[in-house]
Design goal:
The complex is a heterodimer of chains A (143) and B (164).
Chain A (H helix, E strand, L loop, with lengths): L4 H28 L8 H8 L1 H4 L1 H15 L8 H26 L11 H28 L1
Helix pairs in contact in A: 1-2, 1-4, 1-6, 5-6
Chain B lengths: L1 H11 L1 H8 L3 H27 L9 H28 L2 H5 L2 H22 L16 H28 L1
Classes of the chains: A mainly alpha (143), B mainly alpha (164).
Chain lengths: 143, 164
């Protein structure tokens, strides 16, 4: 493998993570009420939720290339296993958020109830996505 | 060289030696650095894409910048602190690394671009923020910003592959 391929693919991977994590942050801060409090949650999520889901395809493709290019960073790496487990949890929380929002249109409405649930979903989401970034960096140190 | 002597002093300071001698400290600092840079690049892209007329067009530019840029600055402060800590642990080598030097130049370029945007009146959005259309100068600044930050990430990864 030419020696510029891996750093280039990693750069694309990090840029896609930047899109996902920042989009998650926008939604989460809105759920807590710290951000864009003057906008309905539905507007914030219709702007940013697609940017959580679609870049996952890029992450999957670049992630697969990294595993193939560097077999040491294989499926047996504990940091990689942790990253995938936390990713599943983060996607479940994102799905839960979408479900809650679809079921109850007032979800995330800062004037009415369900604020505690919304804030809890947001905090768990932020912690999980941060853990994914951390675990991703640690893969290199278990190789 | 005098600079190297200063850098040698820096990497001998207690903070620097603690990082270089502790196996786990560097990856933890690096993880925080990556999380911070990811938020810098992601949030500044929201502003850049608005200026380019690609996204968030229903939001006035000034409002969007007021909302998003404090997050960008907060994340940048964390990235700068963690980056300085990593640099201190092996200062002489970093200072001679091609990608590290390139990254500093790119950061300076991003800073100059931002200063021009705000100080030369390009960012004087009062005239155009409500209409949604942005002048060519603002679009240029946004494009330079996007490309510069993408390059910062690429050069940062380049440091990782040439230092170890």
């Amino acid at each position: 493998m030419t020696n510029w391929v891996v750093p280039t693919v990693q750069t694309i991977h990090i840029l896609a993570i930047a899109v996902v994590v920042s989009s998650v942050l926008m939604i989460d801060l809105r759920l807590i009420g710290l951000f864009w409090a003057d906008r309905p949650l539905s507007q914030v999520s219709s702007r940013f939720l697609p940017l959580v889901w679609w870049p996952l395809l890029v992450l999957l493709a670049t992630g697969a290339i990294m595993i193939i290019a560097e077999p040491a960073r294989s499926l047996k790496n504990p940091a990689f296993q942790l990253k995938m487990s936390v990713l599943l949890a983060a996607l479940a929380v994102t799905g839960l958020f979408q479900f809650l929002q679809r079921r109850n249109r007032a979800f995330g409405d800062l004037r009415y109830g369900s604020r505690a649930t919304a804030a809890a979903v947001a905090i768990v989401s932020m912690l999980l996505w941060s853990a994914i970034v951390f675990a991703g960096r640690w893969i290199a140190y278990y190789a | 060289m005098d600079v190297d002597r200063t850098l040698g002093w820096l990497q001998a300071t207690p903070v620097a030696t603690t990082i270089s001698e502790n196996e786990n400290l560097f990856p933890w600092i690096e993880s925080v650095h990556v999380l911070a840079i990811v938020l810098v690049v992601g949030t500044i892209s929201i502003v850049d894409l608005r200026l380019l007329g690609v996204a968030s067009l229903d939001r006035p530019v000034r409002r969007l910048m007021g909302d998003v840029l404090p997050l960008t600055w907060g994340a940048f402060a964390v990235a700068a602190i963690t980056g300085s800590l990593m640099f201190s642990s092996d200062a002489v080598h970093y200072a001679h690394n091609f990608f590290f030097r390139g990254k500093l130049i790119l950061l300076a370029l991003a800073g100059i671009n931002m200063a021009v945007f705000h100080l030369a009146g390009i960012g004087d959005v009062a005239r155009w923020s409500e209409t949604g259309a942005t002048p060519v100068a603002a679009k240029t600044a946004a494009a330079v910003s996007l490309l510069t930050w993408i390059a910062v990430v690429a050069f940062g990864r380049g440091i990782g592959f040439t230092m170890h």
